[in-house]
DNA sequence: TTTGTTTATGACAGCGTTGTCATTAAACTA
DNA sequence: TAGTTTAATGACAACGCTGTCATAAACAAA
């Protein structure tokens, strides 16, 4: 037999409405009453029915995780973090993988929100950086948090969790410079991703800070893919004046670069140092293991969800949350001989 | 304004109950009536409220995907497949990552099912192979599908989707034999995973079929991890009589073996051929790219979900569904010189 | 036809909550 | 103290659907 709110009310000798107030943390309940109710709920091992709650209220007690990201590890980590917070706070998670590049992606998302009556959205790149989408969501009063690349200073729309790619990129470049490298090439990620730009700018800034001039030949356009790393490294290896280090915008690119160097018989790290970004599990499984930067994806997800749920409950908290990916030195880099 | 069942009923000039019948595919509705209703639903772009449905009925219209698997790619593919079918059939998906090794895993799952009132479960290895769990689920009348390693002949409990690892393993081994290899080592996966056993048996059977004796030194215990591949390959390379090919039970092990060989300066595939299993994305990103076996994970997920939802609707279909992973020849194998 | 039988459809209560508004109790104020 | 304001609590309808049971329509057999 399922325990309902009435049993709890009876047990606590209050009305069901008061129990409801306690469940939803509504103000205007005396502490003593609240305690009684909480106790009754525990004694009866009561859990409110999600279905009844969402039917009766305008909320659905569900949030959506919408993503378009080929990196399964990232998604799983995010998802697990979101799920943790959802469980704690009695919310459900609706997963919505999608393709950010289809023309009607915005409609698709708005439709989903409307249909499922989602209380909020967790958005990751590149969706979190789609200005048009953000605009429409705000217009329709949809609540959301965005995980985006940036330093948390700028006036971004909506609540944001900032990932300071630039600082991490600066640190990586600085590290290479300290190893004595001066000819450091950079293979870019997708130009539409803000992280790509931020990472490039961090690289640029670090070079500048050490007075090293930027060599245009060493900056290769690309996207966040293995193939891009292969192509990028190939063209770098074709240069008369070759770089001594390659900074790949993410681990996949780095793996591709590694692959291309291997094909060419170039020793890593003896002849060229390579660094990646993201700390994908496979960055530990290449040979040699990749030096890279790690971001605490699950913590990011938790913070994001926390922020979102506060918003959903109209507890506006305007704090700036920023994460700094951390340099992880492994075996694909060494001091310039 | 949200469209409800009453609007549809009005539009189709029938009672709401009849609309309900159509929604749930209940028998006893004349075809003409059904058409009218379907048409009205489309015209109004109607979607039933999950909350109301589950409140009113004993079902929740939610199924659970419970997994413990470190392979993010596998999980994402499964999840996407399940999600596709859920959307089609108006079900919701509840994701539940867990640790299959905690002592009270069975209670945890039973509790989840009870609490969320899940209509069914999709189970993947190793949970799908936990006899105790299966037993308890059957006892409590919980519906489920199991994705398991096997050939679909055995009398397994519950509905199963079989992955014929053995046949694929046989094919891989046969392929190595055809390349002229006779000294083929095998690095095992987790002994608790049925797939591990099946893969080993396929290997054994293939050797036998070609009259090649099994060399005990060449069979290395392990688990499905990179580290295990490193260790396994190291001990193989330490043998006085070395293998000319290594069959790793999955791509992670293969990547580890590759890594160990590189460390030792052993050329792949010139000196040793290596094959993996699973076709993880990173098997395309190693150098050289791994020869492996691919399973259509998303299709597997769809079949499984389909089967589960039929069960949920009490449409018992007792068909045997089997998938055969397919050999993918890439660059980590070559004919014995 | 008429009656009986089956099949298709509808009326209505109820699922477990929340929102609204009324009521009561408590806390001030003069 | 009585009167007034404020805080705490409760009664009850409503949310959108399904289950049960009653009724109407269609068909078959006489």
Describe the structure.
The structure is a homodimer of 337-residue chains. Chain A is an alpha/beta fold. The first copy, chain A, is 43% helix and 15% strand. The first copy, chain A, is built from twelve helices and twelve strands. Chain A has helices spanning 5-12, 16-23, 31-44, 50-56, 72-88, 105-116, 131-139, 165-178, 194-209, 226-237, 251-263, 297-312; strands at residues 62-67, 92-97, 120-123, 144-149, 159-163, 184-187, 219-220, 245-248, 273-275, 292-294, 321-323, 326-328. In chain A, the strands form three sheets. In chain A, strands 2-1-3-4-5-11 form a six-stranded parallel beta sheet, sandwiched between helices. Chain A has a four-stranded parallel beta sheet with strand order 7-6-8-9, with helices on both faces. In chain A, α1 crosses α3, α8 (165-178) packs parallel to α9 and α10 crosses α11. Chain A is elongated. The model of chain A has no long low-confidence stretch (mean pLDDT 92). The structure holds a DNA duplex (30 and 30 nucleotides).
